[in-house]
What does this fold into?
Amino acid sequence: MSSNNVILVTGGTGLVGQAIKHVIETEPEGSRFAKLPGEKWIFASSSEGDLRDPVQTRQLYEKYKPTHVIHLAALVGGLFKNMKYKLTFLRDNLLINDNVLEAAHESGTTKVISCLSTCYPLDENKIHTGPPHQSNFGYAHAKRMVDVQNHAYKEQFGHNFTSAIPTNVFGPHDNFDLEDSHVIPGLIHKCYLAKKNSTPFVVAGTGKPLRQFIFSRDLAKLFIWMLRSYDDVEPVILSVGEDEEVSIKEVADAIVNALDFKGDYTFDTTRADGQFRKPASNKKLLTLMNGFEFTPFTEALDLTAKWFLENYDTARTGAAGKKAAAQ
Ligand SMILES: NC(=O)c1ccc[n+]([C@@H]2O[C@H](COP(=O)([O-])OP(=O)(O)OC[C@H]3O[C@@H](n4cnc5c(N)ncnc54)[C@H](OP(=O)(O)O)[C@@H]3O)[C@@H](O)[C@H]2O)c1
It folds into this structure.
């Protein structure tokens, strides 16, 4: 890559965007994930432009003239919000993705990496096989369409637009909202409140389902690798291996340890478990990268819990969290 590239990260204030910012700011010179001399990185928030609006999207491109875009901006939510607002998840994400790709096309941006999701059966060849899970079909269909658009832009215009498929991401700057978060930040917040208020720490479900979790700062490095070294339209799954699945009980145990919680700790088995497994293969990634060392799960979880404790006042904790903390 030449040294005067401008890389625009949409959704730059979110969990993944902030992790890329961290890696770009801290990775030592010479590392394959380091910032290159002269390179300019922009981490855009929604306040700089609502990407559902084509005019504001075009203005953002005119302002920064990006040569490369890592497109992370999306309406993202937990299970409850996805189930309740299916049309909003479908439309907002379709609009955001269409505007970001079309503005890149119009302004001659060389490369765009977008983000798909793991809401459907997975290896890289199965993105369009079978319907997505009913609970989030709005979000999942919008994500699938990005791959369709990438292929269409490539076939009609020869563009270098591609996509990444991260599995369950966690890390600093996550959304710790009690009612609308993913499992790790939700449980960290719950355990924090149980300790603070001397109440039991109750985990929904049996604790048996298994998931592949990826630390946001590892994921950030994988995005930087894709930016520099991956020029194919087909998506790549960015994940730890299928043999590194962790159960929800292991997650909860690690949180109890990280927060040094000594109170009552139980599983509410009357609550639904969700899918037992959602395995995703990282074979393609590891072959292309010639190996990658992931941060051990408990180390990444400790770091995330520590970040949450240190940044409680500014973290995304939601209205219910603030109320419970004030008890
Ligand atoms: N988290 C996961 O486990 C996971 C798994 C698979 C895929 N992904 C994908 O990874 C990407 C990043 O996810 P994340 O977890 O980092 O999300 P996040 O923390 O919720 O951040 C979302 C980002 O999108 C921006 N955004 C939302 N609506 C926007 C709009 N209308 N206009 C402009 N910007 C807007 C937000 O900006 P403001 O905060 O400034 O409003 C924020 O920077 C998303 O595409 C998501 O679908 C995430």
